[in-house]
Amino acid sequence: MRRALVTGGHGFVGSHLAAGLLAEGVDVRVLDRPAPRQTDLGGPRASGLGLLGVEAEVELFEADLLDPAAVTAAVAGCDAVFHLAAQTIVSVAGRAPAQTFEVNVRGAWNVFEACREAAVERVVFASSDKAYGSSPELPYREDFPLRAAFPYDASKAAADVIARSYAAAYGMPVAVTRFANVYGGGDLNFTRLVPEVAIAVADGRAPEIRSDGSPKRDFLHVDDVVAAYLALATALGSPAARGEAFNAGGDRPHSVREVIDLIVAAGGGEVEPEYGPGPPPGEIVDQYLDSSRLRELTGWRPRVELAEGLARTLEWYRDHPEARP
Predict the structure, then answer these.
(1) Are strands 216-217 and 181-183 parallel, antiparallel or unpaired?
(2) CA atoms in the 13 A half-sphere facing the CB of 40
(3) According to the model, what pLDDT value does residue 33 have?
(4) pLDDT of the residue at 42
(5) Which of 132, 152, 166, 317 is catalytic?
(6) 33 Cβ neighbours under 8 A, 6+ residues apart
(7) Which of 6, 14, 198, 218 lies at 20 to 30 Å from 116 by C-alpha?
(8) pLDDT higher than threshold 80 for residue 234
(9) Which domains does the chain have, with CATH numbers?
C-alpha cells in the first residue's frame, strides 16, 4: 500500500487504523465529516485523530458519504480503501432507520462504486457480527446466513452483501470484516459497555448496567483490530481473500458481568455496579465468533488478553479527561 483512504477516520476504530497505517509508512487520507462535530447523541465530540496525536499527519477530506462526486474525489489516487464510516449507534438506528439505511447502505455503495471506477487494488469493508442476527448455532462462522432482524443489523447485512457482489460481478478485490465488540482507549460512543463502565469507574461512580449482566459477547481490543485490517489488506494481494467475509474475535465469549468485574477490579474495586432486571429487550443474548478463517489465511490472532486490555482502557480514560462526557 502506498496511499490508503480510511472513511470514518475521526472515529474510534478509524483513527486507530489511520495511526496503524502511518506507522507502516503508508500515506493516509481520511474521509469524514468535519471535526469537532456533534455526536449522534448530542454534545461535542473530539476527533479520534486528535486524541491519538496523528491529525496533522493525515490528509483530511471532509465530505458526505451520500455525495457520490465527493466520494469519487476522495478515492482518487488511493490504492487501498478501508470503508469504516457508518451510523454505528444501535439505539439511533432504532429511532431513525431511514437515516441509518441511507448512510450505511447507500453510503457504502457510493464507496464501492467509486472504488470500482478507480480500479482500487484493495478494498476492505467493515460489516459487523450483528449482521448474523440471532443464530441457533454458536460460534458464528462466515458461511452462516445473515439473519439480521433490526435496523442497524439489517443495514450492515445489506452493505455486506453489496460489497461481496462487487467482487462476484466485477472482480473487485474486496473483503468484508465481521468483527466482535471492539474496545479500547478513544471510544467516544458512551452507549457501549466498555467506555461507559470504564469512565464510570474512572470517575468513582457506580456503573448503571442495562442488563442483569448475563448476556455473553466476544470482545476484541482495538490494537488487534488494526492488526487484522492490515493483515487482510495484505491478503487481498492474492485471490484467496477476494469476495470473502472474515470474522475476528477474542477467542471466547465473556459475560457482561465478567467484563464489568474486570474493569472494577482494575480500578481498585471501590464501586458497586447497578444491574438491570434482565437482558435488554430486542437485543441478541449471546454472540461470539469463529475466527479460524482469518487465522488460517493470514496468521493473525488476538494478542491482547481481555484483563490487560480493559486495564489499559481504564487507564486511557483516566489520562484523557477531555474524552469523557
Answers:
(1) unpaired
(2) 19
(3) 83
(4) 42
(5) 152
(6) 10, 62, 64
(7) 14
(8) yes
(9) 3-182+220-250+288-304 (3.40.50.720)
Between CA 153 and CA 158 the distance in angstroms is: 9
Residue type, 250: G
Residue 260 phi, psi dihedral angles, 5° rounding:
-65, -45
Residue type, position 282, single letter: G
For residue 190, give the C-alpha cell: 458512551
Q: Which pLDDT belongs to residue 40?
A: 44
pLDDT in tens, 137-191: 999 999 999 999 999 999 999 999 999 999 999 999 999 999 999 999 999 888 8
- DSSP string for 39-54: -TTSSEE--HHHHTT-
Q: With contact defined as beta carbons under 8 Å apart, do 232 and 294 qualify?
A: yes
Residue 152 falls in the annotated catalytic set: yes
The whole-model pTM stands at 0.94
104: DSSP letter? I
139 upstream amide cis, omega within 30 of 0? yes
Rounded Cα gap, residues 271 and 3, in angstroms: 46
